[in-house]
Specification:
mainly alpha
Length: 99
């Protein structure tokens, strides 16, 4: 190629503007790629945090196993003292349970 032709292209304002725009596009491409990678990393971190939060907020197993009163445990007589004793025992069981 003719050195004079290359020199003329470098001095052409249109060619200079196009070269400058090409360089800017290359920089923008690199910045967008870096932002995309940062975004992916942030999504992974948020997913991990969400998993940790769900572990913290999930109901823990009770300290005491669930206690169900069966008909055999109900007071046999309908007297007031046996009913009171039953209610007293029941309230003690309930007060020992957390939450």
């Amino acid at each position: 190629m003719d050195p004079t032709g290359t020199q003329q292209q470098d001095q052409n304002p249109f060619h200079q503007a196009l070269s400058g725009q090409g360089a800017l596009l290359g920089q923008h491409k690199q910045l967008i790629k870096a932002l995309f990678e940062s975004n992916q990393n942030m999504v992974q971190q948020i997913s991990e945090l969400a998993r940790q939060v769900s572990t913290l907020t999930s109901p823990a197993s009770p300290a005491f196993p669930p206690h169900q009163v069966t008909p055999a445990q109900l007071p046999a007589s309908s007297s007031a003292t046996s009913s009171q004793r039953f209610l007293h025992n029941l309230s003690g069981t309930i007060s020992r349970r957390p939450g």
